[in-house]
Design brief:
heterodimer; A: about 90 residues; alpha/beta; Rossmann fold; four-stranded parallel sheet; 3 helices; 4 strands; about 25% strand; B: about 160 residues; Mannitol-specific EII, Chain A; PTS_EIIA_type-2_dom (chain B)
């Protein structure tokens, strides 16, 4: 099972919405995921265990796992592209 | 039980501001006067906006959703400002991009969880160009409050 980090600046607002969207997406596609909603500043603690980071607070930092920008879940623009990107990573 | 403070007094129309800091200051000062947030909120929300911008290039009318940690909040509320002239905010997730924002929703959240419905409903508004245009142009605060009460559904 993949561990997916869902992060925003405060870990309370936008990540809540994104967390739910990714949960639904995984469910619709029958993929089991372990979602962790965190502050972007806490991502480093999961450097060894996470498979993917989906975030509204893009960071300049480099991680060993892919990072996907989740802003489209908030604006609704290009949301299908973002979902496809996430699914591709989850299916790897 | 309804635990959110929401009425005409936290809707700011035709707000004149030359920068995002001025927008945040005007909105936070109003909330602080009403005792809804602590005096520490303003500095915290400005710093957070600097580090993690909240501007969203939504269809039709661009918005921003400044917010900060729960410890600066006394009572949960969402303040809305309609800006007289658009003000530049950084784009969420793209530190080098800017967006001209006309509608600002300042979120004062008092708990880290249990607001999924509220936030999802807010994002539904952001994805509805007609609603955004209505909010940006309506001059009657009561109509704005009624529309948001209806769309955000505070009755959870």
């Amino acid at each position: 099972m993949k561990t997916v980090l869902i992060a925003c600046g405060a870990g309370i607002a936008t990540s809540t919405v994104v967390n739910n969207a990714v949960e639904e997406l995984a469910k619709e596609n029958n993929i089991k995921v372990d979602l962790k909603q965190v502050k972007i500043s806490e991502v480093g603690a999961y450097a060894d265990s996470a498979d993917l980071l989906v975030t509204t607070a893009m960071t300049q930092k480099e991680f060993d796992f892919p990072v996907i920008n989740a802003r489209n879940f908030l604006t609704g623009i290009g949301i299908e592209d973002t979902k496809a990107q996430i699914l591709e990573e989850l299916k790897k | 039980m309804r635990d959110i403070y929401f009425d005409e007094s936290i809707i700011l129309l035709d707000l004149e501001a030359g920068s995002k800091e001025e927008v945040l200051t005007a909105m936070a000062s109003n909330l602080e006067e009403k005792g809804l947030i602590k005096s520490s909120y303003l500095e915290a929300v400005i710093a957070r906006e600097e580090e993690f911008a909240t501007g969203l290039p939504t269809n039709g009318v661009s918005v921003a959703i400044p917010h900060t940690d729960v410890e600066h909040v006394n009572t949960k509320t969402i303040s809305v400002a309609v800006l007289k002239k658009p003000v530049e905010f950084g784009v969420m997730g793209d530190p080098n991009e800017m967006v001209d924002v006309e509608l600002v929703f300042m979120l004062a959240m008092d708990k880290a969880d249990s607001q999924l419905n509220l936030l999802q409903n807010l994002m539904q508004i952001f994805q509805n160009e007609e609603t955004l245009k209505f909010l940006a142009n309506e001059k009657d605060k009561t109509k704005i409050v009624n529309l948001l009460e209806n769309k955000l559904d505070f009755s959870f």
